[in-house]
Design a protein that fits this description.
337 residues; mainly alpha; 2 domains; 31% helix; disordered N terminus
């Protein structure tokens, strides 16, 4: 279904059904009573929220179950995933972290402010901190309008009953949420302000670093650090992803590493903005290779739904960053990039 047809179908469902939902930290389903302001949000706001959740922020990548081939099960969209991440693969009793149900069957008793506090500040309604695998420290920098749009969309998705297990004991202390990344720490384009593409690059910076997940996935992540992302190496890649956690089928290696997406020789030096945009939307590198999962590019991935303008903006931004040398990480299997 095209984005336009999906939008029309979604609007028809919204008019007929309305509603909203949420899930508590322990995974308990709460009464689906919706008395919050976003329940009457304008259709355009809900559609903006859908675009952000599906294609820019990539919420479904973590909060939707996957089938045996690693594809998202659209019939369980945002229904949550039990033990989505495992920080201690050698111990089944510790380190398991579920991705909670985000549909109105779970979030209905939360206020708009509580929903935003969770995905922007890392604070549950009971005041407890969320584990920073959820990149709230990056999402804190999105605009208020975009945060409100995400809440409005989460209120409107079809409710799917279900709970997820509570978080297991952690291998590292968690006494407070990770602090927000200062906007000033997100790398700037090297284009001068007078360049015709400067404003486009700035839009790309917002999409990749403040509302999207490019920064989180392509920056080294440190377990137990106060700020999990090593912002001195922003976009330099090297973050490890467990194939088990991400449902990557064989013959994937046990661990897949994100690549350097700065214009370093070990990254995307020589790429054009259109090369990056084509990779995001079509999932194919300039050399013709496919990307390793869990990179959600291509028609079946979150980034495949990016608008032409937004994909281009991210391309302009990434190709005009100052180069940062990435770590020498294992590459994808032969035939991929």
């Amino acid at each position: 279904m095209t984005r336009a047809r999906r939008a029309l179908a979604f609007l028809a469902w919204l008019v007929a059904a309305g509603a909203g939902a949420a899930c508590d930290q322990a995974g308990t389903t709460l009464p689906a009573t919706t008395t919050v302001s976003s329940a009457s949000a304008a259709p355009s706001t809900v559609l903006r929220g859908e675009y952000l959740v599906r294609s820019v922020a990539g919420c479904g990548e973590c909060h939707t179950p996957r089938d045996a081939q690693g594809n998202l099960e659209q019939g369980l969209w945002l229904a949550g995933v039990a033990n989505r991440f495992d920080l201690t693969l050698q111990d089944d009793t510790t380190g398991g972290i579920s991705a909670p149900n985000l549909t109105p069957a779970a979030l209905g008793a939360w206020t708009d402010a509580q929903v935003k506090a969770a995905f922007q500040d890392g604070v549950a309604p009971d005041g407890s901190p969320l584990f920073p695998l959820m990149p709230y420290y990056a999402y804190r920098n999105m605009t208020d309008a975009d945060a409100d749009a995400i809440v409005a969309y989460l209120r409107a998705v079809p409710a799917i009953a279900g709970t997820t297990p509570p978080r297991q004991a952690l291998p590292v202390p968690l006494t407070a949420p990770a602090p927000a990344i200062p906007v000033s720490a997100i790398p700037d384009t090297t284009l001068p302000g007078t360049d015709p593409e400067y404003a486009v690059a700035e839009q790309g910076r917002y999409l990749a670093g403040q509302v999207g997940f490019c920064l989180d996935c392509h920056t080294p992540w440190r377990l137990g650090a106060t700020q999990p992302l090593d912002m001195t190496r922003a976009f330099a890649g090297g973050r490890a992803f467990s194939s088990r956690d991400w449902g990557v089928p064989a013959p994937a290696p046990p661990v897949v590493y994100s690549y350097d997406v700065t214009p370093d020789p070990g990254g995307i030096a020589g790429w054009t903005a259109d090369d990056v945009a084509h990779l995001l939307v079509e999932g194919v590198t300039p050399g013709g290779g496919d990307l390793c999962r869990p990179m959600p590019s291509g028609p079946a991935g979150a980034l495949g739904g990016l608008s032409t303008a937004d994909a281009h903006a991210i391309g302009v931004y990434l190709t005009t960053l100052a180069p940062v040398a990435g770590d020498d990480v294992p590459r994808c299997p032969a035939g991929s990039e």
